Amino acid sequence: MPRLLYLDCFSGASGDMILGALIDAGVPFAEVATVIDSLGLEGVSVAHRRVDRSGIGATKFRVIEGDDVEAHEHGHPPDHAHPHDHTDDGHGHRHDAHDHHHHPDHPDHSHRGLSEITTIVERSALSPAGQARAVALFRRLAEVEADIHQMPVEEVQLHEVGAVDSIVDIVGAVCALELLGVDRIVASPLNVGSGTVVCAHGELPVPAPATTKLLVDAPIYAAGPAVELLTPTGALLITAYADAYGPVPPMRVAQIGYGAGDRDLVGRPNVVRALVGETADSPALERVVVLECQIDDMNPQIYGVLMDRLVGAGALDVFYAPIQMKKNRPGTLVTIVAPPEHREVLTSLLFTESTTIGVRVTETSRERLDRDVVVVETPFGPVRVKVARRNGAVMNAAPEFDDCARLAAEHGQSVKGVQAVAMKAWLDRVS
Known about the structure:
Structural class: alpha+beta
C-alpha cells in the first residue's frame, strides 16, 4: 500500500521543527548529518536531543555554529536564543533584526544570493533529484522575494532563508523526506500565529510578506499566542511538498514523531506532529470549496443563465433552494461546489452575474464514487448506463436519462418504460 506522511501543524511549523519531527518518526539522524556536513559550511554542525514541550516529548533539531561554545561542550544548545544578534520567533527560526555591514574582506554570509546557494547545494551529497528539489525550493523563495521587492531574481539577497540555519533546515528536510520514502504528503491547515515579527525589513505583521505569498491557495488560520508560529522556511517546505490539506486521511499509523520549537508555549505544545503509515482501504477524500450566497432581489430569469455560466467556469455542482430571508422576503440560496483552484473565478462570476454582495466560502472534503459508462443494447436502440463503484463493488447503476427520453419519443413509449428495459438489459449483461 502507498506510504503516507501527515504533518499536523496545529502550532505552526518551521524548518527545524519539521526536520525534528521526521527524525523523531524514524529518519536516521546520522544520514541527515552526513548530507549536511557535505554542504561545506565552515564551522557548522548539527545536533538533536529530546525535550519537553507542554508535557509532550519531542525531538529538538539544532544547527550549531562555530561560536556556540556551550552547544559544543554539552553536545546540544541551551534553551535560550542563538547568541548572534537575532530575534527568535519561538520556533528557533531567526529573523535578522537589522542589515549587517561587514568589511569587504569578510562577506556577510547571512545574505546569500541564489547562485551562491545553488553552488552550495550542488556540491552536497544529496541525490541528483534531491539537489534539484532543494535548488527549486530556493528559487521559489527568490522569485517570491523578487516579486515583493520588484527586482530581478538574480539580484535578490535571501536574508532569513539564506542564513546558515535555514540552508541546513531546507537541505536537511529534503534529505529526510527522501529517506522517509513516502508516496503522499498531507498537511493540516496551517496555524500562522499573530502579532508582529522583526525581520530584515523592519517590524511587520504576522505572517510576514514572503510567508504570506508562499501561502497562496493553502488553508491558514490564527490561534494561540501572539507570536509568529509559521516561519518562511516552514511555509516553503509544506506548500512545496503537501499534495493536499485537511484532517487526517484514512491511514494505518506506523510511526509518530514530534518536532520541537525553541519556546515552551503556555497551554500549547510548540511542536509539529508527523504521522507516518500506509493509506487505509477507504477511498481518498477530495478537497472542494463550497460557495454560498442568499439572493432576494434578482430577476428569476437570470438564475438559469447564472447556473450555465458557473458550470462552464468549472463548478462541479450548482443548486438553488428556496429560503425565507429577513423582512419576511422569499429568497434563493445559491450553493456551488467546486475545486479549490476555481474559487476565485467562480466568486468573481457570482459578483458579476448576480446581485449578491457577499459570498461565504467553506473548504471541505468529499468522497466520490468511481464512475464509468456502459452502453447496453435495447429493442429501442443503444442506451448509456452510468455505473458507480466503491472499492470495485457496484453501488449504483442508472440509464442515461437523455438517451431514454430520446428513444421514448422516437418509439412512442413512456420514458419510465424505456428506463426499465435499459436497466434490465444492464442487469442481464452483468449477470
